[in-house]
Amino acid sequence: MDENQTEVVKEFVLAGFSHTSSIEAGLFVLFLFFYVSTWVGNVLIMVTVASNRYLNTSPMYFLLGNLSFLDLCYSTVTTPKLLVDFFHEEKLIPYKQCIMQLFFLHFVGAAEMFLLTVMAYDRYVAICRPLYYTTIMSRGLCSLLVAASWMGGFVHSIVQTILTVHLPFCGPNQVDNFFCDIHPVIKLACAETFVIELLMVSNSGLISTSSFVVLISSYTTILVKIRSKEGRRKALSTCVSHLMVVTLFFGPCIFIYARPFSTFSVDKIVSVLYNVITPMLNPLIYTLRNKEVKSAMRKLWDRSGLGEKAGDTRQGSF
């Protein structure tokens, strides 16, 4: 097949969720709520961490602020396009935009996986080596680890993208999902893709599964090293929010990427979970279980003057 044939497909058609206008309208409102909540929650965490001296100098909250930024980026890769598509009967995406979406999805997603692994190491040092915590987890090391997470995500994504763009696409062009991802796009290639699929599953599956194993091993080590029941209870309480985030993010990713390129009926629902729902839930999970973040948010609220205005309004109503 000659080179020109690789560009026969100029655009792809996304499957979406429904072709009924009333259902699409309801889904638009629902996903808009998810997206706005994601922005409000994650921006609030970033502003709180940046404005509070203690949180801003703490390695744990420095990493949390970076996680919130990644969640914003991750959600923004797919959700705005999804919201726009609810108003169109035919959900088209140009070839180049599809490849860009695929690239940034894996770039940010892999970076978040690496960052969650870094956060697990941070908790290990904080609980198992508390006297050396501030020395080991210096701002310089934290910044280096965050940069390494981004670089790791970039390398992973560029490999996936290069393997994809070298494939010929000459029809059909129906992507069986609401965004462009490796699995549904590769299925449309006009060439034998077994070896490439194997490479991609090995790449994505290895990253998600190995990172998850490292995370679980880290928390297991923490619990094993702490002998007292009270100590284990405190350690579990400290790490439970992180464990919830890890489960919500890695579970769906392992299900999607650590298996052969076959399609299941629940794939679209699982994709919604890790693309839309998890970035919205992360701020909620961390703030509800973290007294320091909640206290810092209250101080930020009071400093903004909104708390006083609300109090004055309530007093004036009597």
From TrEMBL:
Residues 41-286 form the G-protein coupled receptors family 1 profile domain. InterPro entries: GPCR_Rhodpsn, GPCR_Rhodpsn_7TM, Olfact_rcpt, Olfactory_Receptors. Pfam families: 7tm_4 (PF13853). It is found in: Cell membrane. It is a multi-pass membrane protein. The chain crosses the membrane at residues 27-49, 61-79, 99-121, 141-159, 205-224, 236-257, 269-288. One of its GO terms (cellular component) is plasma membrane. Belongs to the G-protein coupled receptor 1 family. This is Olfactory receptor. It comes from Heterocephalus glaber (Naked mole rat). The lineage of its organism: Eukaryota, Metazoa, Chordata, Craniata, Vertebrata. The gene is LOC101700384.
